[in-house]
Amino acid sequence: MINCIGLDISKKLIAVHIPINKTNIEIENSLKGIKVLYSKLNKLYKKSINDLVYIFEPTGNYSFTLTKFCNEKNIKCFMINPKQFSNFSKALGQRNKTDLIDAQVLSQAIHLAKEGEIKVPYIDTIVEELKELISYYKFTSKNTSKLISQLESIIVKNGSKYMINDLKKSIKVSKDKELEILSKIKNIINSDDKLLRGYNNIKTITGIGEIGAIVLLHLFIKYPDANQRQIISLAGLNPIEKTSGTSIHKKTKISKAGSKVYRGSLFLGVLTAIRFDDNFRIFFERLKANGKHTTAAQIAVMRKMIIIAHSLYKNNKQYDKEFYKKACGYDKE
User: Fold this and answer.
1) How far is 222 from 262, CA to CA, in rounded Å?
2) Which of 180, 234, 237, 307 is packed most tightly, with the most Cβ within 10 A?
3) Domain CATH code at residue 21
4) Total domain count for the chain?
């Protein structure tokens, strides 16, 4: 416990609890601030500096600098699940909630770590770069859609010619930026044989185009050891049920716990798959015949597409309609 450093990460600051001298401090959430902390810990722990374990919640971009620093300095970390930490804090009876208190509680959470969870974090630069470019593409694409909507509303009102011309120019710039980002993503994929094979295999599934194949490829390389159930959960498509006694019986819904990028990029592909691929069409129609709502049936098709894509990626195979038709017994329908 004395070697467990609790770190509560926010956008600008990191609250730190140092158990060797029971000190609570705040540092800047930047490489400079993290280096200052490491220097301080080096003076306090001296020869046992290599025995330290940093305990913190992974918070996406806010925790990336710390994670990368730990990777470079070979510092062991326990990156605790936020829900797990919340439950642990409640179990301790901790009602007050400040960043410094959270850091102190985090330093005690080492007992929750399972085998293999205390380790030096691994940073895959390709995964991170793809993640940033995909997010940038989505941001740019969303901006293009907003500009188009604004243009259409002005044209309908027969509005300002200046605004119409200016918006048309802005839309062209935004669309060109989309193509530029997409080109950079493809360059990364084309530079690695394994990525290129995986991308091409995924894209053979009816309904999955360039963007869908890219986001699924990113999902699979980000979580290389995930099984099919975990992949569905990471995409936020796992069904959850809320029932309690006889009074609470809510409809089963998808968790939406994973990134919405995956779901958003595949929805139109689902409609295409249902229309042009017998395997997905029969599966969809069977669910509808069994009373499933249209949206629920479409989500089920999306899950099926992701599972097939994951299998193709793992086994380096292309989608074979006839194979899946026989495997699922659809050839008899």
Assistant:
1) 13
2) 237
3) 3.30.420
4) 3
Dig out the tokens for 317 from the structure: 């195979």
- Give dist(CA 320, CA 302) in Å, integer: 17
Between CA 66 and CA 57 the distance in angstroms is 11
Q: What is the pLDDT of residue 162?
A: 96
Let me know the angle formed at the C-alpha of 157 by 153 and 160, rounded to the nearest 5 degrees.
90
Dist. CA 241–CA 227, nearest whole Å:
22
Q: Going by C-beta distance under 8 Å and a sequence separation of 6 or more, which residues neighbour residue 121?
A: 67, 70, 71, 77, 79
Range of the domain at 88: 4-119
The CA radius of gyration of the chain, in Å to the nearest whole number, is 24
Task: Give the mean pLDDT per block of 10 residues along the chain (333 residues).
Answer: 92 95 95 97 93 93 94 95 88 80 94 92 90 92 95 94 96 97 96 96 95 94 89 73 46 53 81 94 94 91 94 95 80 65
CA–CA separation, 281 and 271 (whole Å): 9
CA atoms within 13 A on the CB side of 170: 17
- Please give the Cα distance from 273 to 214 (Å, whole number): 17
* Residue 283 and residue 323 share a domain: yes
Separation of alpha carbons 230 and 238, rounded Å: 9
Same domain? For 209 and 181 the reply is no
Tell me what pLDDT residue 251 has.
55
Q: Are residues 175 and 112 in the same domain?
A: no
- 257 CB-side CA count, 13 A: 13
User: Of the candidates 61, 41, 64, which has an alpha carbon nearest to the alpha carbon of residue 53?
Assistant: 41
Where is the domain boundary, 168, 191, 214?
191
The confidence score (pLDDT) of residue 91 equals: 87
DSSP single-letter state for residue 115: T
> In a 10 Å sphere around its CB, with 0-12 CB exposed, 13-18 middle and 19+ buried, how is residue 267 labelled?
middle
First to last CA, the chain: 62
Q: Which of 171, 191, 211 is the last residue of a domain?
A: 191
Taken in order 265, 267, 269, 273, the sign of the CA dihedral is positive
